[in-house]
Amino acid sequence: xxxxxxxxxxxxxxxxxxxxxxxxxxxxxxxxxxxxxxxxxxxxxxxxxxxxxxxxxxxxxxxxxxxxxxxxxxxxxxxxxxxxxxxxxxxxxxxxxxxxxxxxxxxxxxxxxxxxxxxxxxxxxxxxxxxxxxxxxxxxxxxxxxxxxxxxxxxxxxxxxxxxxxxxxxxxxxxxxxxxxxxxxxxxxxxxxxxxxxxxxxxxxxxxxxxxxxxxxxxxxxxxxxxxxxxxxxxxxxxxxxxxxxxxxxxxxxxxxxxxxxxxxxxxxxxxxxxxxxx
Length: 279
Fold this sequence. Notes:
By secondary structure, the chain is mostly helical. The chain has ten helices and no strands. Helix 3 crosses helix 4. It is globular. The N and C termini lie far apart (67 Å). Mean pLDDT is 75; it is low at 1-21.
């Protein structure tokens, strides 16, 4: 983290006072709260843009706190963990927007381990999912009635404002306040709990977080492509971990290969459709 004068702050100095009397910790909590507000409102405000996913919000938190690389790494790990939020039957999935922001904020700003941050995010995801279900059942129905009333009176601009801002604010503001409380009071509590744990329990939390990330990656691979693409992912992992290749170069090469594969598949499908038409 850096102050306004540009001096670097260590983790122990993160609670020192900035110029103007505002502590770095308060500013950090406010920034993370704003990110959580955007993440909670994203799905309702701008459609399924996926900008509220941990892969993006972790990068933003890292940029705001001055550690872009660590933010991107933590965001990628939490993205894999949230991909593993599997449900059974008709159960609703856990909240995967504001809750991971709180967990990532604890890891990046509060000095909490990945395992403890993931456990806290999992508990918050249950609370946030319950709040979302309540909002869909009560405030959302009220907002829908107001929108219908505005449409009946031909007040299109007011109806549009209620439709675009009503539910996102009802969902976003309480979620952001909960994240702020979790960041302000939760990080010290989680840190003290982890410090009081036996070492094997703390290691177990970290290992459980990594296992959840692996489950999420497997679920993602099963969703986005056939099993035949799995060797490509393994080759990319080996190129980065063993050969120490640049992650950016691997991503660019994979993107180019995906575009070529998509173009070849589209051409084959188009030629097959032309043959059927001729027949």
